[in-house]
Amino acid sequence: MNSTPPLVTIFGGSGFLGRYIAQRMAHQGWRVRVAVRRPNEAMFVQPYGQVGQVVPIQANIRDDASTRAAIAGADAVINCVGILAENSRQKFDTVQADGAARIAQMAAEAGVAKFVHISSLGADADSDSKYLQTKAEGEAAVLAAYPNAVILRPSVMFGTDDSFFNKYGTMARYYPILGMVLPDAKFQPVFVDDVAAAAQAAVLGDATGIYELGGPDIDTFKGLTQRVMTSVRRHRFLIKMPLFIGKICALSNEIWHKATLGIVPLALTRDQIKMRQSDNVVSEGAQTLADLGVDATAMDTILDSYLYRFRPQGQYTDLTSSAKNLRG
Questions:
Q1: 104 belongs to a structural domain
Q2: In this structure, is residue 155 part of a structural domain?
Q3: Domain containing residue 21: CATH number
Q4: What whole-number distance in Å separates Cα of residue 258 and Cα of residue 127?
Q5: Counted domains in the chain
Q6: pTM above 0.90, yes or no
Q7: Separation of alpha carbons 276 and 235, rounded Å
Q8: Which domain covers residue 84, as residue numbers?
Q9: Pair type for strands 76-79 and 157-158
Q10: How far apart are the C-alpha atoms of 68 and 173, rounded to whole Å?
């Protein structure tokens, strides 16, 4: 007689990272419960597994009842919920601190065996950045409820739907000059599926503690932007912007974003500027991807696979360039 496969609940399981984790857990034979605010918008996760294996359900981490229902019966819980910027409904405190605390406490009460929490590299309760402060508060709440929880701190994640490289690819398409605030800030971008592999290893193995996840390449903010320009085959002037001018531009962007109800995209916030004032790289001596058995993927092996759409002739740019060299 076959036993029932184990069940994992992934909060934010239809998001940029969550969908990769959902795929991996389904391929491991687990039943996957994708807990999201709008399950009708997450139906695309169902083909990740067999019929009925991956199921989106409604859950709001600010609500006790729906959070508890999403956790009920789970053998493992993975929390991927987070926001990059605040808006009128979503605040760093309620999502990244209070939300994480609620999920962890209810999972502990339900006797869930494994808990994995996605935080952020640089999480620090003493940071000037509200984003990094609340990430640290969320970690503390998780560890208070689950001393053996696994906390993953990824650097900037890259992949097909990322919010970093795609943003600068879009800007390169329209703007001949790109202003840069703190261009020398260092980052260690990590491939999104490597982070998903780390979450999978955390559930299936005996890992505990905090892991800092970065890729094999460390580069400056300017250097990363130049990588985008190279990939999209566009030459743009990258101009260093004084910090006080950057803060003014960020404030203006926030105001216009709010006034237009989101029509004007939120390209830069004042909190993101505060985050850049500290390098976003893996600490010396930290547990890393390697400790979870994951080989880090280099940016140059992935970026062209999705940034090509920002090239002058899209996927035909290289073909068009070579055709110019043909002689009649």
A1: yes
A2: yes
A3: 3.40.50.720
A4: 25
A5: 1
A6: yes
A7: 24
A8: 7-159+188-216+279-296
A9: unpaired
A10: 45
Annotate 12-62 with DSSP letters as a single string: TTTSTTHHHHHHHHHHTT-EEEEEES-GGG-GGGGGGSSTTTEEEEE--TT
Note down pLDDT in tens along the chain; length 328 residues.
458 899 999 999 999 999 999 999 999 999 999 999 999 999 999 999 999 999 999 999 999 999 999 999 999 999 999 999 888 788 999 999 999 999 999 999 999 999 999 999 999 999 999 999 999 999 999 999 999 999 999 999 999 999 999 999 999 999 999 999 999 999 999 999 999 999 999 999 999 999 999 999 999 999 999 999 999 999 999 999 999 999 999 999 999 988 888 888 888 899 999 999 999 999 999 999 999 999 999 999 999 999 999 999 888 777 776 666 665 5
Whether residue 117 is contained in a domain is answered as: yes
First to last CA, the chain: 73
Q: Please check whether residue 169 lies inside any domain of the structure.
A: no
HSE at residue 264, side-chain half, CA atoms within 13 A, is: 12
